[in-house]
Amino acid sequence: MPSPATPAQSGASARVVPVSRLAAQPAANAPLVVLALCAQWCGTCREFRSTLERLAEARHDIVFAWADVEDDAELVGDLDVENFPTLALFRAGVALHYGVSLPHESVVARLVETLATATERTSPELPTELGELARRLS
Asked: CATH number of the domain that 78 lies in?
């Protein structure tokens, strides 16, 4: 099985992996994991997918993953997602960011670049469930 950062061989989502694949093979050595928490019915989420694809194509070292909060509820766990799309960023089991994001590519790219080189630290404001998810996926 290819690593989570390895492109799939087919389909439009060659670089953004499903969260189920990431759960089966965590991204332990990635400098950053970017997880989009979305819903299939959300139009903004569908727009966001192409933004993530472009960012993933530009940064092969970073793992980009997609979770549908309804279809992947078992993997996402008790994490409360109030608005869509929501981004969770983490590295080596440490949650670095959790928040709503619009599909503004330059803003998301800046967030990714900043956190890819940031010192690992968990903010006390981040949900406990996010830390649990970070440990399972990285």
From this structure: 3.40.30.10
